């Protein structure tokens, strides 16, 4: 049937068409009103992956810039002050401004197999940088401190949540943060800090479902694991990861209060997602994942 001839009136009950004298798009959503963000969402939710534009670069190709433009500093300051009044742990953490300036060499002293030694291997052998190479400057506001600390600890979260350093490992950290901050901070405070990750996570979920269907169940399992870890764990954003670098990974997780985290191998899935290989015949013909039937709700 021709799409234009279909009758959708049943589903459109209650829809009101609001008139406007504006010659530009006008919406009650500040996100929809931003042309750069609309372009980013349509591009990065719908595109395939390819070597010409690596997935990690997505957020710097318009998303971060658009969100910076939309940011209401006064409103953020007001919400942050309210959080400090009602959330003593948050207040103590923000006001302490714990931002140790560690170098790669600082991790070299930790014993083999320790959390710190694993960090050292990643930085010395794979070229990872603390704070993603961001130049450190003293935060001028509580919000700047929170963002700076997140940059500083993000790779620690990859290791401690167990998803690995690839696309789906990144997706796991997004959903850990979504669930975890909502458990320990008020909803508005959590939304402010998670804003960029909301879009970042969404584009990976949609791309998988549209273009890489053999990965769908595995992707959903990664999301599920991230949510489970986030719900059950202590506030990961406020953890002092530097205090447990001498411990083994299981001991570090236990000491910090990170629960239900196990190391999972997402390498083969990442190869398909990044279009470095095609799905095998076995993957194309596989029906479901029986192990997921046993997942508790």
Number of helices: 13
Quantity of strands, as a count: 0
* Element order: H for helix, E for strand: HHHHHHHHHHHHH
Poorly predicted ranges (pLDDT <50, ≥5 residues)? Answer: none
Question: Which class of secondary structure composition applies to the elements?
Answer: mainly alpha
Shape by Cα distribution: globular
Radius of gyration: 21 Å
Percent of residues in helical segments? 40-55%
Quick description:
By secondary structure, the chain is mainly α.
Task: Please specify the SSE layout and strand pairing.
Elements lengths: L29 H4 L1 H12 L16 H8 L2 H14 L1 H9 L18 H12 L15 H20 L5 H18 L2 H25 L4 H17 L16 H8 L10 H7 L7 H5 L12
Helix pairs in contact: 2-3, 2-9, 4-5, 7-8, 8-9, 8-10
Task: Explain what the structure shows.
The chain is mainly alpha-helical and 297 residues long. The chain contains 13 helices and no strands. The radius of gyration is 21 Å and the shape is globular. The protein starts with 29 loop residues before the first helix and ends in a 12-residue tail after the last helix.
